[in-house]
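Changelog note: in this version the structure field was regenerated for every chain. One regenerated record is shown below for reference.
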Amino acid sequence: MHKYRTHTCSEVTKKHSGETVKLSGWIHRKRDHGNLLFFDLRDHFGLTQCVIENTDNLFKLAEKIKPESVVCVSGKVIKRSSETINKDLFTGEVEIKVSSFEVLSEAKDLPMPVFGEQDYPEETRLKYRFLDLRRDEMHESIILRSKVISFIRNKMISDGFLEFQTPILTASSPEGARDFLVPSRTHPGKFYALPQAPQQFKQMVMISGFDRYFQIAPCFRDEDGRADRSPGEHYQLDIEMSFVEQEDIFKAVEPIFFELFTKFGKEKKVSKNPFKIITYKESMLKYGTDKPDLRNPIKISDVTEIMKRDDVKLDIFKKSIEKGSVVRAIPAPNTSSKPRSFFDSYNNWAKEEGAKGLGYIILEKTNGKLAAKGPLGKFFSEKAMSELVKICELKDKDAVFFSADKIKEAERISGLARQKLGKELNLIDNKKFEFCWITDYPMYQFDEKEKKIDFSHNPFSMPQVDIKNFDKADPLSILAYQYDLVCNGYEISSGAIRNHLPELMYKVFSKVGYSKEQVNSKFEGMIKALSYGAPPHGGMAPGIDRIVMLLADKVNIREVTLFPMNQNAQDLLMGAPSKPSDAQLKELNIKVVEKKK
């Protein structure tokens, strides 16, 4: 017989009745019935109930052993009586009558329980992650992550993609998030950078003559953590393809996501391909965000022109429009019966969010016609009201909120209000995965803080302006062949068709103040590679962590990450970051200057 087990804790069933088996695992929980001691034995695969009678010499040993101790037991498989069968367990029709009980590793008192799904502080959970991962819910999420990655890898290979590994130690990039720097021992005073993404390397793979590349790539960014973003590192499915246009990438990726989310999506309905394509401009107007949750049926409308009408007597809006504001309307379906406190709460909420507030009207049929009620209702003529109803697709018993502000602020608050209404009015179908592409991002944006033109997205993207006309084009009017894949309000991936022309690259960077010499210095490898014959190419990089988070139906990315950092970028389990020793600093020719308090 095997030293530790003949079966796993998920295998023993009534067909094994009468057989002697050996199992090894963790004591999941114990139940002392006086004359009988029951305990569930757990391993990676499942649970099996074991029982020891109080007349047995093993009873006292088992009685004092603490939960989560690792034991090896042998015993006969016996059927449970009909009233004691556990239908929730695959092994629930049998139990093991223990004849041998060996303690392989005894556990101390637990800082947090494994049995049950108690809501323990995240600091405790991360400090004792190895215990947290034993809990069924966490264990299943990590198993799901492994299966998702395996599925993606197999799918990519079957679709003709080759898997390559790009460098981890590389050069610092001046664009994007902050780099993590690594000091060089052999080159004192110089530093490597951990890659924020394999962006330049994967482009060079295409320039090297390979046609389809992928990698499950680790990426490192020194940025603040959020619920849907790890503060230090994350993994992404890095993809690049040669001789493609934007639509070719969509066609290659969509079937993978449809199959992936159908297979692991817990029977939720998945958008059929082709996925919806929404321009950035349209998305910001209709949804107030470039990450729209399309499960929410509410659509925002621009009603600036209506508010300008002579038969709309809202001077506060007219004056705001004269100062450069726009007015956005956010429908609130079937809310006319809500108390005034409901509407006032949204006005107060908007102010708390830093906006000017939200006005509103309520629609109700009177004599067969829709009439506006509420504080602003009397200021609309019948004709103006009819036009508003048409533009906003309003109906009887609806209400509509108004936000008047500069365009960015109006987009922001209307988008947040749309999300809030969708949740509070239970309009969001949680049994769906709604995918869409957001396309045609602006190449540039005006940085209000620095008072200059800057890139709005990926600087290596192909602009939608011919090289001959590029110099005379207004930077803020230039769109790029950039796209995001969005699902249920989360950005799953960013991507772009790349700029493969060196001369156009110089022009693109010149718009944000880079000289040709600076581009050559900062992106030496890329410019050099593009100068020796580069194919038109493009790609994207879906985030593995965020994909698994959606599939596992979690709201925090740390719930699907094996050993995550906390929100302050600290590894509480291993104690990182930590201070280096004086010897290490000396070897690296580095001196640490203490920050003044």
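Spot check on this record: The chain has a mean pLDDT of 94. The radius of gyration is 30 Å.
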